Amino acid sequence: MDEPTQGQFYCELFGLTEPPFRLSPDPQFLFASKQHARAKAYLESTIWLADGFVILTGEIGSGKTTLIECFLDELPEDVALAVISQTQLSPIEFLQSVLVEFGLDPFRKDKVELLSMIKDFLVEQYSQGKKILLIVDEAQNLSKKVLEEIRLLSGIETKKEKVLRIILAGQPELNDALDSPRLQQLVQRVRLRFHLGRLSRVETREYVEHRLKIAGAGEREIFSTEALRLVFVYSGGVPRLINVLCDTALLCAFSDEQPSVDENTILTAVEELQWVEYEQRVLEGGTGRTGKHELSSAPLAKLELYRGDDLAADTALRPGRLVIGRTSDNDLRIRSKFISRHHAQILTDLQQSTIEDLNSTNGIFLQGRRIMRHALKDGDVINLGEHQIVYHNLRGDSGNTDEHRNIAELAEEGTDSQA
Predict the structure, then answer these.
(1) pLDDT tens by residue, 102-135
(2) Which residues contact 358 (CB under 8 A, 6 or more apart)?
(3) Are residues 174 and 139 in contact, defined by beta-carbon separation less than 8 angstroms?
C-alpha cells in the first residue's frame, strides 16, 4: 500500500477527497484566469495555424507547466508531438532529443544527417495529414546556438506552407535571450508572444476556491475571507506560492483540530514558512525570509496617458504586469476604436519596466517607429492610436543604468502577420 502523502492526512477533517494544493502539475486543477485562458488559446492556435510559433513566458510558479500539461491532454490525434524539457544541451544534443521524441534513432550521426532526418520526417508526416508540434519547456536555458537551430527548423516548408509548429515556454530570461540582435530573424517568425503574470487579489481567492471545490469541498467555505486576503498578501498571486501557503495552513489547522482556516491560521503558516509579505520579498531580492527592511509600497514608475494635450489617466507601476486595452478587464482601459481588446502590456521589476505589443492591430510606436518590445526609459513617449503614454521612472539611478537602456527593442517592417 502506498504511503499517504502529507496533504492526505488532513483530507478527512476538511471533507476533501484529495489534497487540493499539490505542487506537481495537474491539468485537473487548472484555474482558467483571464490571462491563463488567453495563454491557452495562444497555445491552441499553434494547431490551427500552419505557421504557429508561440512564446510563453512567466515567473517560476506562474503555472506555465500546468497550462502546457492541460494543453497536451486535449491535443487531437492527428498531431505528431515532441516535448523537450531538458534544455541544457548542445545543438547536436538538441537535434538528437527532437528526433528521439519523434521516435527515431538519431545517434552516431553527424549534424547534416540529423537535419536531413528531421526534414524527411516532417515532410513525411505532413504528407500523411499530420500536424507536427515541437514544445520546448524551460527554454530560458537554451543557448543562442540552439535557438538558432530552432529558427532553422521553423523555416522547413513545403511548396505551400511551413510544416513545424513550435511552442517555447520559459522564465522571463527567455525574453532577454530572444532580444539579442543575433536572434532577430527567429523573433520575426514568432506569431504570438505572451507573458503569464501573477493572479490578482480576486483571482487568488477564486483560485483557492476552485482547487478546494475540485478536491471535494463543494460550496463549503474552508478559508475565511480574511484568510484569503492574507493568502494574496503573502503569496503575491503566484500560483506555486499560493499552493505552498494554503497547504501549510491546512496542516496547521489540522494539527489544531480546527475544521477551517482563518487569518490566525494563515499567520501561523507564514511563521512556519518564515515568509514576509510578497512585495517586501520582491524588494529584498526574492529571499522570502522574515525581516530585513520595512515594507515599502512606493511605486517604481508611473504612466501618464494623454489624448492630445488632455491628461486622461495617471497610473503607478509596481512589480508585476499591467495590461492596456479597450475592454474593461484591462488594468489600464483606453476606450478607442484604434485600441485592440488587449493592446499592450508593461512588465515591471526592480530594475526596469518593459512594454510589449500584444499582437495589436494598430501597434505601438516610439519616435514614429513601430516596436514589439522595448525597455522603457524615463521620458519615453509611446503612441497608441490617438493616445500617448509618457513613462516616468521613479527608481532613481538604480533603475536607469546603461545595461538596461536598450535591452529589448524590436521593429518590424511588415507586421500584418502579428495583427
Answers:
(1) 999 998 899 999 999 999 999 999 999 999 999 9
(2) 194, 323, 325, 340, 342, 343, 344, 345
(3) yes
